[in-house]
Write a structure and sequence with these properties.
By secondary structure, the protein is α+β, with helices and mostly antiparallel strands. The protein has three helices and seven strands, in the order βαββββαββα. It starts with a strand and ends with a helix.
Length: 119
């Protein structure tokens, strides 16, 4: 299974809270579109914290089959948040989507995932 790390860069002036809200919205879209394995990654909790921390502006997506649901969710989310940016990462290789047309987004994501054997 290929794991894709998705970092929501948000809008040009987004603060941490807005990025977390945008990420939550993207996660809901992914689940609604049939992406089955999507979660916030664990993070290193600050010293003295009571419990684990999460990276609220990031998601980890496991791709075991078709990439269609991921592309559908990204397109829907970017359609509602056209000024927002999102970065996909696999094994240190990154693709940032910002301001591209829906067709260009699909082509970029498909090419990126295929390069990593997830297409």
């Amino acid at each position: 299974m290929t794991q894709v790390r998705v970092h929501v860069d948000g809008l040009p002036d987004s603060d941490d809270e807005e990025r977390a809200d945008l990420t939550s919205s993207l996660r809901e879209d992914m689940l609604a579109c049939g992406v089955e394995d999507v979660a916030h990654p664990d993070a290193v909790a600050p010293g003295g914290a009571k419990g684990g921390a999460l990276e609220w502006a990031q998601l980890v997506v496991g791709l075991a089959g078709t990439i269609g649901p991921l592309i559908t969710a990204l397109r829907a989310w970017l359609g509602r948040n056209p000024r927002a940016a999102v970065t996909l990462e696999i094994d240190g290789d990154k693709l940032t989507l910002a301001g591209a047309s829906p067709a260009e987004q699909q082509r970029l994501v498909e090419t990126f995932l295929a390069r990593h054997g997830a297409g």
